[in-house]
Write a structure and sequence with these properties.
Largest sheet: 2 strands, antiparallel
Order of helices and strands: EEHHH
Strand content: 5-15%
Structural class: alpha+beta
Shape: globular
Distance between the termini: 26 Å
Oligomer: single chain
Number of strands: 2
Helix content: 40-55%
Number of helices: 3
Radius of gyration: 12 Å
Length: about 80
């Protein structure tokens, strides 16, 4: 859903996150943003977080990657702190 946030469909219903956004750096592109958000979802599932927490972290991770150039940017502490 990109700028409209994320939705997660589970057997107990649909979970929705608000959009996350970061200031866009010059040369930013969305390459890798979906992969980053998917990685955040997988990590949340593996850690057995609740859906809201998982979506929040995954949405921020994907939005950050979309706000900077390149598919695998170094992640700032503000993003890494979402995945303790």
């Amino acid at each position: 859903r990109g700028a409209e946030g994320m939705q997660l469909y589970l057997p107990n219903g649909v979970h929705t996150s608000e959009p996350s956004c970061y200031p866009t750096a010059p040369g930013a592109d969305a390459v890798g943003a979906g992969d980053a958000a998917s990685a955040g979802l997988i990590l949340g599932f593996l850690r057995q977080w609740d859906p809201a927490e998982t979506l929040y972290a995954a949405s921020h991770l994907g939005a950050y990657v979309a706000s900077v150039p390149g598919a695998t940017p170094p992640l700032p502490d503000s993003i890494l702190d979402l995945f303790p």
